[in-house]
Structure to design on (437 residues):
């Protein structure tokens, strides 16, 4: 009979093998694994095992390189994942040591690698005796790839330690109350009646922050559309976009629909076009609006925002939101696999996409209209650097001042770092098209 918890650790190893060795998204693979795990306590442990292992992967890889004579063969990716999981339980999670080691070692048998049981047991017991070996490399100690560590030091010479620390912490769960259904105080009463602890963040009109994360579908009023899950930084998009009640608005990278829904909650009479090149993800926009009892959209378009000739009807927009494809380096604490999937060489391609979107969408804006450019990146090249270059080459584009609460002052726009006001890392720039264009 397997040690208690061995099957769960084997399942976690399968998830991490898919993420680290097959390049799959943690969000997608873990969602499937959680759906196949009926017990809520097991689901919570499975999620924690995967997140903590990915957060500290580089430290654990360093330990394994010190303690093992040779790397595991590529066919043993699941055993490599299992070893990291075991180290995470000892190091980051501080689970009861001997039970965790026994369950993790036995999981190798469930992964059809019975000969690896002894190896897993020996490595983890050494970790218990000695602790993890240190490294001279600050990037290894912080469990970040060298290129990202260097980029953060370059762009944030005094704040980079905060970013590294925040990237390895669990993010809080932010809620956005749907003011078309219920006001925030009333929804707070519902949470309190359900025994759910929360706080009201200062300066956010629609937000609440839970004391502890929980399944969204278990929240009071979820099915009735009273509440959504959305980080405070993303909620700022609706705060920063100045639009009239009946404005014609384009959400150019709309899926999965959080920002579009928030705009409609704030301004139910706007004529909103939701556009995204991924039709499957764009369907989630309609599903979100239906649950929140919002809408209708003026249009839902499956298209490349960078090719307006394929979809634009020729009528200018009063406002455009460009939540651009980016490195996602501001949301690593929510998606720790970003550290290991993103490569330095990816950044040039992302900047090219951002440039293409800005250039293609700007002519669709009416004179006097505004474009809000946003990313969930903390890299200057994608943010203030990208917008500065656009302004230099676009005579009728004028940067607008943003309030202090939008984030730290940048060369252009405002930058929020991970952990600022307990929010994710995010960048915003508001551009107005001059009336004499």
């Amino acid at each position: 009979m397997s040690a208690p918890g061995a099957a769960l650790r084997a399942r976690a190893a399968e998830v991490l093998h898919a993420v680290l060795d097959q390049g799959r998204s943690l969000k997608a693979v873990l969602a499937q694994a959680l759906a196949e795990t009926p017990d809520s306590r097991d689901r919570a442990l499975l999620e924690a095992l995967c997140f903590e292992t990915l957060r500290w992967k580089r430290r654990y890889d360093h330990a394994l390189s010190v303690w093992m004579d040779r790397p595991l063969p590529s066919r043993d990716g699941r055993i490599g994942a299992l070893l990291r999981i075991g180290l995470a339980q000892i190091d980051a999670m501080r689970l009861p040591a001997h039970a965790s080691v026994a369950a993790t070692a036995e999981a190798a048998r469930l992964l059809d690698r019975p000969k690896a049981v002894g190896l897993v047991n020996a490595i983890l017991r050494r970790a218990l005796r000695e602790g993890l070996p240190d490294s001279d490399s600050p990037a290894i100690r912080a469990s970040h790839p060298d290129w990202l560590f260097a980029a953060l030091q370059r762009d944030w010479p005094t704040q980079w330690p905060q970013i590294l620390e925040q990237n390895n912490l669990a993010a809080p769960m932010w809620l956005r109350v749907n003011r078309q259904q219920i006001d925030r105080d009333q929804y707070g009463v519902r949470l309190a009646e359900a025994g759910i602890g929360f706080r009201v963040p200062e300066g956010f009109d629609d937000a609440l922050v839970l004391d502890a994360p929980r399944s969204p579908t278990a929240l009071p009023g979820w099915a009735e559309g009273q509440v959504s899950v959305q980080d405070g930084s993303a909620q700022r998009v609706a705060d920063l976009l100045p639009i009239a009640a009946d404005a014609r608005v384009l959400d150019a990278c709309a899926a999965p629909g959080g920002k579009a829904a928030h705009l409609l909650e704030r301004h139910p009479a706007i004529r909103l076009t939701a556009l995204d090149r991924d039709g499957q993800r764009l369907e989630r926009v309609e599903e979100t609006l239906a649950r929140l009892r919002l809408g209708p959209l003026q249009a839902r378009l499956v298209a490349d925002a960078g090719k307006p000739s394929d979809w634009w009807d020729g009528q200018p927009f009063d406002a455009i939101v460009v939540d651009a494809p980016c490195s996602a380096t501001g949301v690593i604490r929510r998606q720790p696999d970003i550290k290991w999937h993103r490569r330095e060489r990816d950044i040039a391609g992302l900047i090219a996409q951002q440039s293409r979107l800005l250039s293609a969408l700007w002519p669709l804006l009416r004179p006097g209209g505004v474009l809000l450019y946003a990313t969930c990146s903390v890299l200057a090249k994608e943010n203030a650097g990208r917008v500065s270059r656009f302004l230099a080459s676009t005579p009728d584009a004028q940067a607008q001042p943003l309030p202090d609460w939008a984030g730290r002052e940048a060369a252009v726009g405002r930058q929020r770092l991970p952990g600022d006001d307990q929010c994710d890392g995010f960048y915003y720039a508001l551009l107005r098209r001059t009336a004499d264009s």
